[in-house]
Amino acid sequence: MTVEKIENVLKNGKGFIGFTVAGDPNFSKSVDYVVSLAESGADVVEIGIAFSDPSADGDTIMKADLRALNAGSTTERVFEMVGKIRERTQVPLVFLTYVNPVFKYGFDRFLAKMQSLNVEGIIMPDMPLEEQAEFVTLAEKYERSFIQLVTLKSGNRIPKLMSRASGFVYVVSSLGITGARKKLTTESRAIIEKIRTLTDLPIAIGFGISTPKQVAQFDYADAVIVGSAIVSEIEAHPYDAEHYLENMVQAMKAAR
Amino acid sequence: MTSSKKGYYGVYGGQFIPELLVPAVTAVADEFEAAKNDPTFKTALKNLFDEYANRPSLLYHAKNMSTKLGGAQIYFKREDLNHTGAHKINNVLGQALLAKRMGKTRLIAETGAGQHGVATATAAALMGMEAEIFMGKEDTDRQALNVYRMELLGAKVHPVTTGTQVLKDAVNATFQDWTKRVDDTYYVLGSAVGPYPFPEMVKYFQSVISEEARSQFLEQTGRLPDVVIAAVGGGSNAIGAFAKFIDDPEVDLVGVEAAGKGIDTNQTAATMARGSEGIFHGMKSQFLQSPDGQIDPVYSISAGLDYPGIGPEHAYLKDIKRAQYVPITDDEAVAAFEYIARTEGIIAAIESAHAVAYAMKLAPTMSSDQQIMVNLSGRGDKDVAAIARYKGVNIHE
């Protein structure tokens, strides 16, 4: 079996992307959880590489990063874990991490490793347009996608962001950081309409989406990204979350 | 001192921030560029410095100490005599004025020892703005007096309970708050760190220290100092003390970092001695971190110096060998704190005591016709209780 391109799996406009932190609560359970997300219907799985100071993340993911670091997370161990995941599922994968762990591993070496493990893309919330040139050039060399984030404040930066985009476009639903929110606005609709005039890439929306009802609200995006809600299930049931994750993903998929 | 790309100092600097903050940070950069070329802004700031902050600060010849140590003549640049008791006010007045110019109504800031928080709360009170200060929980405990001081000034203080609960976590929390409420809010970053334009802007506002000191030396002694010594955490008082001497090659520049319990222990904040290149808090610089890029917990008796990184221009000045950086331990700093209290009748901040401690080592190796400037960045009232605790003295707080 081969790993499909993200662009293709999100084509039907009803995509679901699930997020989990590698090594939360430990590395063997974490492999199981990625597999269960994939088997329950997640079209893409985003794997977080824990960082000591995750500045774009709220409390829920911050605590998960800490659990993973306490479980001995290192960049090398995350790569080993992906190797094990690849023995069990061919779901498209992307990494989410901060620039420093990637910088310390070496941009070139990191991207080469992604290629060998068939991880298609990477999201780094603290590497904006202004600082991307070197990394994006290398990502092209290794045929990896650099996922661009677009926010409610991006405005006239959007065309430039789109000229560098690959894989999918990640629209940030609201201001602030990751984590469940009671209410989400649909301000992102206009942004997504604007993005569509500039790219054919699928558009996913994330940040704060935690219930099937909220998932349904974003029917104008090609995919929704759910992170903190999944991480909360793992926090609540560290060693037997499979069943809870399955129910959640199925309910969210049904709401698409 | 030119560099290839705006906001970079050699390989260091940059703007590693979330897309959500780029428009806000760019707006600050544009406004700063406009303001620094605007005579109205410059006059307004000068007036605040002279009529509110008590500038210029004294350049004081510490004769007792110079005689006792038996070497170079030691001069203190008395930033401790500024309104609010530290150099922090220089930068805060500049940035608050800029925020006002941008039409912002709410100031947010991180603080370590509390001095920057107090200065921000002060400027907000003066200019009729809201202030919210983020301070590591551990620091709110060891600097309780400053917390109450900020509250008296009308600011809201948020103890930060994430991570190691000190300065770096306060910086994280303040950036996060900014992403939640970016339209009416201005982040008054307190040190020469973070994304461009902050390192450059903080240097610009703090340069008043060396601008004054340079002419005071010429006036009082007829020549420039041989050495300028300043404590470095993020590096704002040091970059301000160095700025106008950088182009005088005969002036040695020395930054003093907090070694905590020693640079060979894990209880240290000596970034230059122990760190490596990394990208964090919006900048490429030197950081204390694991080989994997996880930021290390750091330690120093000084809440203002226990920061795992350093401003990008300092990293550059070290690389090009224009400045050197030396570690001073808690024990040495406390000894210096007591020494200048008894010798010169000055209770200096524990941060500044790190710089004094190095001057005490250096002066005896120099001749009596040479001169050292120590930047006395702040006063030590806030540290009295902590020093008593350190010495095991019960002062019935």
List keywords for this structure.
A: 256 residues, alpha/beta, TIM Barrel, 9 strands, B: 397 residues, Rossmann fold, 6-stranded mixed β-sheet, 4-stranded antiparallel β-sheet, 16 helices, 43% helix, globular
Verbal overview:
The complex is a heterodimer of chains A (256) and B (397). Chain A has 256 residues and is an alpha/beta fold. Chain A has a single domain (13-254), classed as Aldolase class I (TIM Barrel), CATH 3.20.20. Chain A is 43% helix and 14% strand. Chain A is built from twelve helices and nine strands. Chain A has helices at 6-9, 27-39, 59-70, 75-86, 99-105, 107-117, 133-141, 158-163, 188-196, 212-217, 228-236, 242-254; strands spanning 15-21, 44-48, 93-96, 121-123, 145-146, 148-150, 169-172, 203-206, 223-226. In chain A, strands 5-4-3-2-1-9-8-7-6 form a nine-stranded parallel beta sheet. The longest helix of chain A has 13 residues, at 27-39. The model of chain A has no long low-confidence stretch (mean pLDDT 96). By secondary structure, chain B is an alpha/beta fold. Chain B folds into two domains: 9-49 and 88-202, Rossmann fold (3-Layer(aba) Sandwich); 56-85 and 207-391, Rossmann fold (3-Layer(aba) Sandwich), CATH 3.40.50.1100. Helices cover 43% and strands 19% of the residues of chain B. Chain B contains 16 helices and 14 strands. Chain B has helices at residues 22-36, 39-51, 63-69, 88-101, 115-127, 137-142, 144-152, 167-180, 198-206, 208-221, 236-242, 271-274, 312-319, 330-344, 350-362, 384-391; strands spanning 8-9, 12-16, 59-61, 73-78, 106-111, 130-136, 156-160, 185-187, 227-232, 252-260, 276-280, 282-287, 323-329, 371-376. In chain B, the strands form three sheets. In chain B, strands 3-4-14-9-10-13 form a six-stranded mixed beta sheet, with helices on both faces. In chain B, α2 (39-51) packs across α4, α4 runs parallel beside α5 and α9 (198-206) packs across α11 (236-242). Chain B is globular and about 55 Å long. The model of chain B has no long low-confidence stretch (mean pLDDT 96). Chains A and B meet through α3, α5 and β6 of A and β2, α1, α8 and β11 of B.
